[in-house]
Amino acid sequence: MKKYDGFCLWFTGLPCCGKSTIADAVAEELSQRGLNVERLDGDIVRQSLTKDLGFSKEDRDKNIERVTFVAKLLSRNNVATLVSFVSPYIQKRQEAREQCHNFIETFVKCPVEVCEQRDVKGMYKKAKAGEIKDFTGVNDPYEDPPNPELVLETDTETVKESAHKVLTYLEGRDLIPQKVEMSEDEVYTPEEEEIVKKRLADLGYL
Amino acid sequence: MKKYDGFCLWFTGLPCCGKSTIADAVAEELSQRGLNVERLDGDIVRQSLTKDLGFSKEDRDKNIERVTFVAKLLSRNNVATLVSFVSPYIQKRQEAREQCHNFIETFVKCPVEVCEQRDVKGMYKKAKAGEIKDFTGVNDPYEDPPNPELVLETDTETVKESAHKVLTYLEGRDLIPQKVEMSEDEVYTPEEEEIVKKRLADLGYL
């Protein structure tokens, strides 16, 4: 397979807007297309990389800084890197953009009321009751991306539709392979196959 | 080029034993052979990933935990990952071994007296004078690796010799390409070249 360039697909948006669900769907498809894929989200990094951090502005910033460092290293080494964090502040997303290779800001846009309805853990409710401090969308601001590469409107799109948008964008930039099938006229004679095999071996592909 | 498996080459040893110098030399050669290469060492990660940490045992452990997380992600994505830290404790190196793909513990072995002579920053002197606490080799222990994949004896080997040992080991495990030259009998006729080119394009290599 052609060696595809790495990238950092950065999903940002309110809690429960659908970031992780879409990122997981896209990651699954990219793995099937043979790419090296990594997912970075809160559930993953807060167990190890950022387990000392809470949710104050300062700690959120540190969290994003460390994730950015990792995404930088992965994206410049041909890894399809899918990052999903609320990442509410423009400044920190801008820093991620400057550091990561092929940074693609993906704004997962959804009205806060819809996010709240989807919130099975009841976090919005707790935040409104004052039980959670610094909760984005309730008592901490979310700064909309002024110029994102992609906007996914998850109140009107299905997960499949949003994932398709992302995949089409990545295909358009030639960052991922298309889904292809072998056609009839790509069949070789045995002699041709031998030559091809030998050359592939010489080049180190086999 | 064949897609080589990633690995984590973990250099451990006393301060000023030569870890970073050898790791840099190996990294340079691996880049020239066309691999994706990353270097993780104190100078790099303490600026970003672990800038909140000092040198107490607890902080050193956290430092190694975060580096391990990054090395895990890189090594499982076909990146040649070269890590150089004093990393004095067996337990933390063991955890890194369990998490990283193709973990290769490389003990950079050198008598403490020789390390001290090489110490241009005078850290050993300061540690002996009590100005630096928890300095490995002076007032904090270094636990020798009981069973490292590689031992480099930098008091008797040159940097080139040590680097050569590492490269030979990696070649032996087929983790890196050999240095190869194109020989005369690998020249193709124009017709053969056409077939090869078309097939390479079909396969997505071109």
Explain what this protein looks like in three dimensions.
Two copies of one chain form a homodimer. Chain A is built from eight helices and five strands, in the order βαβααβαβααβαα. Chain A is α/β, with parallel strands linked by helices. The first copy, chain A, has one domain: 3-Layer(aba) Sandwich (Rossmann fold), CATH 3.40.50.300. In chain A, strands 2-3-1-4-5 form a five-stranded parallel beta sheet, sandwiched between helices. In chain A, α1 packs across α7 (159-172) and α3 packs parallel to α4. The longest helix of chain A is centred in the first third of the chain and has 19 residues, at 57-75. The N and C termini of chain A lie close together (12 Å). The mean pLDDT of chain A is 91. Chain A binds chain B through residues 1-3, 36, 38, 45, 48-49, 52, 62, 65-66, 69-70, 73-74, 77-79, 177, 186, 188, 192, 195-196, 199-200, 202-206, and chain B through 1-3, 36, 38, 45, 48-49, 52, 62, 65-66, 69-70, 73-74, 77-79, 177, 182, 186, 188, 192, 195-196, 199-200, 202-206.
Supply the CATH class of chain A: Alpha Beta
Multimer state: homodimer
**Tally of distinct domains of chain A:** 1
> Which architecture name of chain A does CATH use?
3-Layer(aba) Sandwich
The succession of helices and strands of chain A, N to C, reads: EHEHHEHEHHEHH
The radius of gyration of chain A is 20 Å
Biggest interchain interface, per-side counts: A-B, 32 and 33 residues
How is the CATH topology of chain A named? Rossmann fold
What spatial form of chain A do the alpha-carbon principal axes imply? elongated
Number of distinct beta strands of chain A: 5
Full CATH superfamily name of chain A = P-loop containing nucleotide triphosphate hydrolases
- Give the helix level of chain A as a range of percent: 40-55%
Write out the strand line-up for the largest beta sheet of chain A, numbering strands in chain order: 2-3-1-4-5
Q: Tell me what portion of residues of chain A adopts beta-strand conformation.
A: 5-15%
Kindly report the average pLDDT value of chain A.
Answer: 91
N- to C-terminal separation of chain A? 12 Å
How large is the count of helical segments of chain A? 8
